[in-house]
Amino acid sequence: MATPTAVLQQIKSGSTDPIYLLLGEDDVEKSALAHEFEALVEEGLRAFNVERIHAGDWTTGDRLAAGVAGVVAAVRTLPMMAPRRVVLLLQADTVLMPKRESEAATRALDEFERLITSPPSDATLVIVTASVDRRSRVFKLLAKHAVLVECGVLESVADAERWIRNRTAAAGVSIAPAAARLLAERCGPDVKRLRNDVERLLLYTLGQKTIELDDVKEIVGPAALQDDWAMTNAIEAGDGKTALRQLALMLDAGLAPEKILGQLGWVVRAKFPQIAPTRLRNSVEAVFRTDVDLKRTAGDPRVLLERLVVELCERGAGPKRPGLRT
């Protein structure tokens, strides 16, 4: 399975494989990545060598047969005044999960499978689909002979930055490189937070042609949590410094103190009977006291939660750590 970033590098180098299958529910990224393949052909020659075929309405056997025959013909056509042709097969669910309603459709799909196993070297076929039956014969052939690309899966800040540029471009707005970089660094590869912050940015900059760095600074919060359970994991390990740092990130990201307290209560109920049975009663009492104090607004919620985290780390697995008492 290849990443979109790796495929973009292949496109830039001009050295691509004959067939790509773009998977996943992220339609914007799939569409943007499919569009990038057009760069394999000089702009002035794309009218002759880039073909976009939509398979969304191939709902009957006859339409499927005609459509697949057109795809095969398009891929096997020699490029004109260029070293390569690019064929984009969009909404390909009907091809990858077909209903073989006629003998003609069956013959056409057999020909499509032959194309997969023996594609021409001077063409690149890009298949874009929302879903696929991974048990099907055609998918197994693609898994063997094509490059599978999972879209919508972010693994790094660079992935997040590309995701942001794709989203803003799809909305008809450009974003300054520094602005995209800052937003990616703040959110990390967290698709949910990225989606929310981009939507807020688009509303905030409504009417602007470009999103600038100052716009991002006005909208986004501090760095995102990479692991929602990092605080509770640190408490289990008795690592007070890490637990307090993760608590600060959660509060700065806008997470409600009550929800954080819920996590702390869970770790006491679920984990302490095994990792600290002799300290369970005092830990439960500490959670209860903090809950009451939060409801009475008897102090700054941050201070109350920090005190509880320190107490739980002192009662967690492993030895007490110096310098954590309040």
Plain-language structure description:
With 326 residues, the protein is an alpha/beta fold. It has three domains: 147 residues, Rossmann fold (3-Layer(aba) Sandwich); 63 residues, Helicase, Ruva Protein, domain 3 (Orthogonal Bundle); 85 residues, Zinc Finger, Delta Prime, domain 3. It has 16 helices and seven strands. The strands form two sheets. It has a five-stranded parallel sheet, with helices on both faces. Strand 2, helix 4 and strand 3 form a beta-alpha-beta unit. Helix 8 crosses helix 9 and helix 14 runs parallel beside helix 16. The radius of gyration is 27 Å and the shape is elongated. The protein starts with a helix and ends in a 12-residue tail after the last helix. The C terminus is likely disordered.
Record keyword descriptors for this entry.
326 residues, 3 domains, Helicase, Ruva Protein, domain 3, alpha/beta, 16 helices, disordered C terminus, 7 strands, 56% helix, Rossmann fold, two-stranded parallel sheet, Zinc Finger, Delta Prime, domain 3
Short recap of the structure:
The protein folds into three domains: 147 residues, Rossmann fold, CATH 3.40.50.300; 63 residues, Helicase, Ruva Protein, domain 3; 85 residues, Zinc Finger, Delta Prime, domain 3, CATH 1.20.272. The protein has 16 helices and seven strands. The chain has a five-stranded parallel β-sheet with strand order 2-3-4-1-5, with helices on both faces. It has a two-stranded parallel sheet with strand order 6-7.
CATH class of the largest domain, anyone? Alpha Beta
Give, in spatial order, the strands making up the sheet with the most strands. 2-3-4-1-5
Structure class = alpha/beta
Q: Please outline the major beta sheet.
A: 5 strands, parallel
What order do the helices and strands follow?
Answer: HEHHEHEHHEHEHEHHEHHHHHH
The structural domain count equals 3
Spans of at least 5 consecutive residues with low confidence: 316-326
Q: Determine the number of helices (DSSP H or I, runs of at least 4 residues).
A: 16
Percent of residues in helices comes to 55-70%
Q: Any idea what the shape is?
A: elongated
Report, as a whole number of angstroms, the end-to-end distance: 50 Å
Task: Look up the CATH topology of the largest domain.
Answer: Rossmann fold
Rg over CA atoms: 27 Å
- Per DSSP E runs of 2 or more residues, the count of β-strands stands at 7
CATH architecture of the largest domain: 3-Layer(aba) Sandwich
Mean pLDDT level: 87
Approximately what portion of the residues adopt beta-strand conformation?
5-15%
CATH homologous superfamily designation of the largest domain = P-loop containing nucleotide triphosphate hydrolases
State the oligomer: single chain
